[in-house]
## 1
Amino acid sequence: MAFSAVRQQGFAAGVGQVASEVVFDRRHGLAAFLPREVSDGVDDPTFRIADAVQYQGVDPRLALRILEMLPMETRSNATFVDYGCGKARGLAVGILAGFRRLVGVEVSRELAALADRNLAVMRRRNPGVDVQIHVMDATRYQPPEGPLVAFLYNPFVGLTLERVVQRLEQHATHHPVWVVYINPRGRSAFLNRGFRERSIFGSSEALLLQSGPECENMETFGMRETLDKGR
Ligand SMILES: C[S@@+](CC[C@H](N)C(=O)[O-])C[C@H]1O[C@@H](n2cnc3c(N)ncnc32)[C@H](O)[C@@H]1O
């Protein structure tokens, strides 16, 4: 996110974002800044590398802003799953947003090990919070029963995304499912499987989607939220 920010937002705004990511990482004991290829340390023979997006940490301000739109009840009761958790910056944001049960799914053994190491400070500061890392292809991950918040910072596309969305659609037949999708290259995969857009951030830099039993009655958030880069 940081490197593309310098390219996309211009030098000053891009540098501001890089600085905010570095400050976030320092404050929460993470080393999550540098990008990394996915192919490092992947054992799963069914993994579709052509669908995978390399590791880059999410913009923590944007992620936190979206997660804080979810009702507090959802944040305390739902399982937060970061599909493609990389070095765990998304998980750190999930903890700060108030989730008590979090799962990171990461196909790269090396990235998963870095995620585990990165979470040491957050775990110590939040002893009641349960964070687990699963080293596996996201297509094979079966979410636990109960309400779910799926967090995706553009981790994969293509058939891999289709298979994950299929599982989420299945989950939504019994439980509420929220999806926070940042850099949503595969939004149609969700819209084609019954997910509704609850909020759109900036010029579609991020989406909040929802599906599930209580979806019809839930509050609709403001659409087309303007992104305030200075926050
Ligand atoms: C753009 S990074 C997202 C990082 C992280 N979610 C965050 O918010 O900082 C994408 C991540 O998805 C992982 N990934 C790609 N394909 C995957 C797959 N099929 N299963 C699990 N993880 C995958 C990559 O290794 C990489 O760490």
## 2
Amino acid sequence: MKHKLELIYFKMRALGEAPRLIFHYTEIDYDDVMSWDYYDKEWSDVKPEIPFKQLPMLIVDKKHKICQSMAIMTFVENLAGINITDPILNAKANAIMQSAHELFMPLNPTVNFATGEKFIKKRDDMMPFLISRFEDLDKAIKENDKKFFIFDEPRACDFVTFHHLDLSKLLDPSLIKKFPRLEKFLEDIMSIDSVKFYLESRPELIDVSIEPKLVIDGVPHPTGVKKT
Ligand SMILES: N[C@@H](CCC(=O)N[C@@H](CS)C(=O)NCC(=O)O)C(=O)O
């Protein structure tokens, strides 16, 4: 059964990315809609109506509101029929997905919003945590001996991990270079045609640490939750 899928989010390269990546990988049609275009209201007026008061949210068939990016990822895996049926592998995949998701804070807000001295301090303060978590992910993929974290084809956990590792390049491009196996993982995800198409066409995030903006249809917009 084909569902109408609407992914509601903001102007930032953060928790909307993994859902977008898995939608493109699985070639499932969805609409990518900014909160203000969907509701025609400011975020502060919309927020109380959202089940868990944050985005991204996936609206299914104009009826079901699915919040929490990890729930969206699992839903898309199920919808596409690529869910991991083996309970042990499924649990391992979830551990990878959650461990990568924990990189969200403070990596994503820093890259999308921090500027000047604050950017530098946040970057330097989070570096021990990033290095430690990258080491864990590096070890997990090496132990598995597959192309991706679970199989030779990617699953939800791979797209969540991809997003955060990829975003780290905008925080400090030298970090990922310390982990050649993770760099290879990024290249393997980027070389999948449907994913490559999305990555090449998505809004570019520019002026990180100075005045971050997303270039949408050729026009730079400040990152954030407001219509510009
Ligand atoms: N655990 C949630 C976190 C969602 C979240 O932090 N969303 C942020 C944007 S990335 C948000 O809605 N910010 C606006 C607000 O909190 O009012 C998830 O994984 O989806």
## 3
Amino acid sequence: MNRAPDLIHLWNSILSYALPMHCALCSMQCHEPSATEPICAACRQQYFIRAQARCYQCALPLEKLDDQSHCGECLSTVPHFDRSISACSYAPPLDQLVLGLKFMQSLAYANLMATQIAEQMRALHAISPDLLCAVPLGPQRLIERGFNQALEIAKPLAKKLSLPLQPQLLIRLRDTLPQGHLSGKERKQNLSKAFILNPEFLGQIEGKHIGVVDDVITTGTSLNEIAKLLKRFGASQVTNLVFARTSPHSF
Ligand SMILES: [Zn+2]
Ligand SMILES: [Zn+2]
């Protein structure tokens, strides 16, 4: 079992008590940001705008503020997931939090992301899933990175929502290429049979509403493959819970 994330959490906690911290977004030095909430109140207000209209199903930013609107893409090809909730758009400076979590092991950011997802759910009066799981990393990437950023977000999110988390429900059988620069057909081939459900936990999804946690939703292809799989094995509903949603131009 990998203990690195726990040790990093502990180290960050010690540092936060010993030293003034810098806000992760505006670099202001103050005592307010902590190991668990690493941005200042001004940045929280400025960058997490709850009124952004989004597609109900894939969380794509929309012009019209209507809780039930769907984008053209979701209307023409209906995804397998029922709903996506995203705390923000993937754009500067918030993309730095995503990159910081992924590459610099700034695990304090995972707690902030979980807080923002939970607040977005509350703002949208979203129905809580019955069970949470996280988009898994491939075996090689997990070894390289040492932790799965989606799971690190799912852990505090499960606590905040008082929901059970099943970290081993989904398994990624192999490492896949980054989806961003592939065509639609290539994306599907890239992910074909990439995920399976852990047979040990199949009994937990029958008739249940499953929440799938990830850091960013880009093309939505991975989340769609996962939702298809969960539905095939009896999940009644699938909601994606993500920190950031890319805009169409950043696909
Ligand atoms: Zn700030
Ligand atoms: Zn959509």
## 4
Amino acid sequence: MIDFHNHVLPKVDDGAKSLDMSLSMLQHAAKQGITDVVNTVHYQHPKVETEDISYKRIQSEVQNLQLELDRNEIPIKLHLGAEVFYLPNLGSVKDDPLSTFIHGKYMLVEFQVHQLPKTQKQVFFDLKMQGVTPIIAHPERYKPVQNDISIVSEWLEAGCVIQVDAGSPLGFLGPSAQTASERIIKNGWCHILGSDSHDDKRRNFCLNESVDLVKDWIGDAVNPMVLDHPRAVIEGKPIAIDFEYEPEEIPNFWAQLKHRIGLT
Ligand SMILES: [Fe+2]
């Protein structure tokens, strides 16, 4: 399996606090059958304002951690990536190879939890026009999506890829994220499942348990979410974004009233 979303570099963002913690997390990942880990360091996020999140530095951090993995015989290959915090500047950010998995074909974008800026639709449209496909990081964790799941279908219509956190279906990120993730996955709207692991305790790699649960919901359709699709992102190849959406029917006022007073 490939883990597509995590903060495993030691002492760079709010992820692993030490090299020992990184190695413990990656040892745990290897035991789950994860062979490839795409590191997605926070990028232009308020959390990393004082850190040097440049291509050169992160590339060197990834190389150093890979050496430690090899030395400790942990059979995992690391890949370079970033989780870009949404600002309306994505059109210029895309020129930094760190922001687009080096090849410039995809960008993993996260929003703050409480609101989605109005500018996002136009900014994503412009990115697509320039050949960069936005990957929406953990939509199930955003309050507006929890209140209106159709926002995800709008991203799909715009050609975006959807990444759900593996801990969400398991309930690790709260009941609202759990419910929203189940709806997104059962609707066939999720392309990638990523651990979003931050530490070796509560937010560790949890791909195995999540895949088992999601398999109960959608069977083998879970496999591309941890294999083919993250592999396509690493290699800069296309992912088919094919979906259907039938809005849930909301009964009108009289139908609801009749139902309440027991006439239906
Ligand atoms: Fe993340």
